């Protein structure tokens, strides 16, 4: 890349941010490969990533400061009440135990009973995440200090606790809301729900903001390919409207320049053709002599050179692209070259500029016919219209395949100046292809000579 003296190469802002963060080169390359390239996707990241980070921090703080603390306090209170009931049962005479159980049921828990037997049930499998099990079990172990069994799995509303005492197996059933902060999940649901709503609103808003940019890009691409853009109207944010109005003004200036250029070329062409016609008439009056024949050949060569120069200077941007039958287009382009074979499906169609594309193919075919005995033309479509022109001529060295597209460039080898011409055929062909968003590339032909490949986007 060439950089003017005193200037600094432009780097994308995200790349400068990555460098400012000081990430290792492997991590930087990994991020560069995985960052989205479309504006809509990057805008989504700008909104969604901070929101996810913020919600994660808030959730962590909430769980740590509120949920766990509240659960801790409720578990401590529950364990203290259980310890009090156990102590009363063990210290009171048997006849008072029903009164103690009834009082605990009425004032502390949902149900308190003494079960027969001296064995606790087998413990339930632990869940992956059970804040209640850990906290409540820890407090019962610390305050009650007796073998116990706890069930927080079977029911979503109740917690069953059994404690082995000297009076028997004490069964306590209480609400889950009395042992831990059971309504905390509502807050988390609200956080997640509001985040999803905000993300959905942001996506709809971003889609509306990105659409005018996409329409502007489509209009610019259509204008470059010769398609009409009269229906495009600027809309969207102020900055997008400014860019759209600048594009429309640029289109008008280009069209005015083309009109002036076309009018000038038409005048020059008319004047020069008039002079050449007078030359031909004067030569015809001189008779069919050897000198007049040489002058007549020079006039013909001047006429051909004039047509080539005008074709090079003339633009076809005012010609709109239309759906054309490719086989008919190529057949017209190769008319007058009987030895050229075409292999084009009859049903093949493509949206191209008919006149310009016909001239493009005719230039490539004429260049091939001038130096080869066998010429073949093929066409196919996919994402682009691809036309290949193969010949069995001497070809062009790889080192000169780019130079031959320069105006007036002539080879000194087998394709030399003795063949005539102005050196503008390939230049005009590539110019026409690039005006439609495509290109012309030269390579090796299966026939042993040169292959010219035309790609025109559809």
From TrEMBL:
GO CC terms in record: plasma membrane
EC primary class:
transferase
| Catalyzed reactions | ATP + protein L-histidine = ADP + protein N-phospho-L-histidine
Q: Which UniProt keywords apply?
A: ATP-binding, Cell inner membrane, Cell membrane, Kinase, Membrane, Nucleotide-binding, Phosphoprotein, Transferase, Transmembrane, Transmembrane helix, Two-component regulatory system
As one GO molecular function, the record gives: phosphorelay sensor kinase activity
In this record, what's one Pfam family? HATPase_c
> What subcellular locations does the record give?
Cell inner membrane
Could you confirm whether the keyword ATP-binding appears in this record?
yes
> What Enzyme Commission number(s) apply to this enzyme?
2.7.13.3
- What Gene3D superfamilies does the record point to? 1.10.287.130, Histidine kinase-like ATPase, C-terminal domain
Annotated HAMP domain ranges read 207-259
Topology in membrane: Multi-pass membrane protein
Signal peptide span: none
Which top-rank group of organisms is this from?
Bacteria
State which residue ranges cross the membrane.
39-63, 186-206
**Domain Histidine kinase: start-end pairs:** 267-458
Write the protein's name.
histidine kinase
Q: Which organism is it from?
A: Acuticoccus mangrovi
């Amino acid at each position: 890349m060439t950089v003017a003296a005193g200037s600094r190469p432009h780097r994308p802002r995200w790349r400068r941010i990555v460098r400012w963060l000081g990430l290792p080169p492997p991590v930087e390359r990994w991020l560069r490969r995985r960052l989205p390239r479309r504006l809509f996707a990057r805008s989504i990241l700008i909104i969604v990533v901070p929101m996810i980070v913020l919600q994660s921090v808030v959730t962590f703080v909430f769980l740590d400061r509120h949920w766990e603390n509240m659960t801790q306090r409720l578990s401590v209170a529950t364990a203290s009440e259980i310890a009090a009931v156990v102590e009363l049962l063990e210290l009171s005479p048997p006849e008072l135990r029903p009164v103690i159980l009834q009082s605990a049921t009425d004032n502390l828990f949902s149900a308190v009973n003494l079960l027969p037997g001296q064995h606790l049930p087998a413990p339930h499998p632990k869940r992956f995440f059970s804040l209640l099990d850990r906290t409540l079990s820890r407090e019962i172990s610390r305050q009650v200090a007796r073998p116990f069994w706890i069930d927080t799995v079977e029911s979503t509303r109740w917690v069953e606790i059994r404690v082995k005492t000297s009076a028997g197996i004490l069964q306590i059933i209480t609400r889950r809301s009395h042992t831990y902060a059971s309504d905390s999940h509502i807050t988390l649901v609200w956080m997640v729900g509001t985040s999803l709503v905000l993300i959905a609103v942001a996506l709809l808003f971003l889609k509306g903001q990105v659409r005018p940019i996409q329409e502007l890009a489509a209009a610019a691409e259509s204008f470059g390919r010769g398609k009409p853009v009269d229906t495009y109207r600027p809309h969207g944010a102020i900055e997008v409207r400014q860019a759209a109005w600048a594009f429309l003004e640029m289109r008008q200036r280009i069209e005015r320049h083309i009109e002036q250029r076309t009018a000038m070329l038409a005048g020059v062409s008319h004047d020069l053709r008039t002079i050449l016609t007078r030359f031909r008439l004067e030569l015809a009056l001189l008779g069919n002599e050897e000198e007049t024949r040489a002058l007549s050949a020079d006039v013909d060569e001047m006429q051909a050179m004039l047509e080539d120069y005008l074709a090079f200077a003339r633009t076809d941007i005012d010609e709109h692209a239309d759906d054309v039958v490719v086989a008919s287009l190529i057949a017209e382009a190769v008319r007058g070259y009987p030895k050229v074979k075409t292999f084009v499906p009859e049903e093949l169609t493509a949206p191209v500029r008919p006149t310009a594309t016909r001239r493009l193919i005719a230039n490539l075919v004429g260049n091939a016919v001038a130096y080869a005995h066998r010429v073949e033309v093929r066409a196919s479509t996919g994402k682009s219209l691809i036309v290949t022109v193969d010949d069995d001529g001497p070809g062009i060295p790889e080192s000169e395949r780019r130079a031959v597209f320069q105006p007036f460039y002539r080879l000194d080898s087998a394709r030399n100046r003795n063949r005539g011409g102005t050196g503008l055929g390939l230049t005009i062909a590539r110019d026409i292809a690039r005006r439609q968003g495509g290109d012309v590339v030269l390579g090796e032909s299966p026939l042993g000579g040169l292959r010219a490949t035309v790609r025109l986007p559809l």
